[in-house]
Task: structure prediction
Amino acid sequence: MSESNPIRVGILFSETGDISTIETSQLMGTLFAIAEINEAGGINGREIQPVRYNPESSPGLYRVLAERLVLQDKINVIFGCYKSDTRKAVIPIIEKWNRLLFYPTLYEGFECSSNIIYTGAAPNQNSVQLAEFMVSNYGARVYMVGSDYIYPYESNRIMGDLVLQRPGGAKIGERYVPLDATEKDFKSIITDIQKVRPDFIFSTVVGDSTQCLYRAYADAGLDPREMPIASLTTLESEVAQMGFDVGAGHVSAAPYFQSIDSEINRLSLSNFRRRFGTDVVPSAGWEAAYFQVHLFANAMRASGSDAIDLLMPHLLGSEYDAPQGRIRIDPSNHHTCLYPRIGIANSEGQFTLVRQATRAVHPDPYLVTHSLGDWTLRLGATG
Ligand code: ACM
Result:
């Protein structure tokens, strides 16, 4: 492998700050894929060399460091971002200089940049299924709690629209807390929840403060069998932070959970742990961060270049056998065909899968089809 002519790629995941636990897992998923590709001979004999900065969970730093990657480091392709305000901070830079961002995180949808490949779930691949599951099993009166930024506002708007489609559907509370919220910030919210008794709570709290919401809930003696917290952002890594007993019984939706019963998933997890140990807890953001590097490498093998205009025709429509199943980039909107799943957290810190799509659901980032029963709608990743 030629180490004199490496392919340099940019990496923007925070290793410090409010969002560092989940972004560190995305960073490790990215480095895992790079290690696999390099060990197998690189891309056409060229090693992938990561150029990595720590944006410290600050949207302003994401913008500055994205510009540094483009102008100073002469990087064409960047892997990064969890929170939507950090993606929104990077977009003007990559669009201005015509570079490519791979974004491995679920988000609120209603966006389609031709300079981004979106590998996390759009709302029709997680919110729609979660809403349907919650109203069918618990009831349609929802209380929403979120972090104070764009993804929670928009994701709550979508969840509200979905539950209001049901007879008796109602939004009976909507509260926001700072990103560095502590358990004290959630206490008055839990008191309000005890008063108004929703059928379920929808949490769009993200990052390290997630554990404080679930702890405040547990401390109040509330029972997830009667009134669970449903979420798209509370996954294995957040449950590990709060404690398995605190998370048990709550409901989440994602295209990937560690508990997926497949050979590819088991192999990916054991190879990851062999190389990187067990400190980092894989979850959906880790998996998307991992498979998107392989999508890039495969496209570049075909294009011979990492320039966006040469790479994109090979990325759009491309497929990969990811740990969640065979995924595909939808050429019409740059998002990914993914497998919606619902899991209930168990006492081992894993999610027991209670519902999963048998084939990938096409991404519909603008929710053109805005209905509850989207498990079978427009199915078929390869069709
Ligand atoms: C998010 O901010 N997209 C979770």
The chain has two domains: 2-121+261-337, 124-259+340-378.
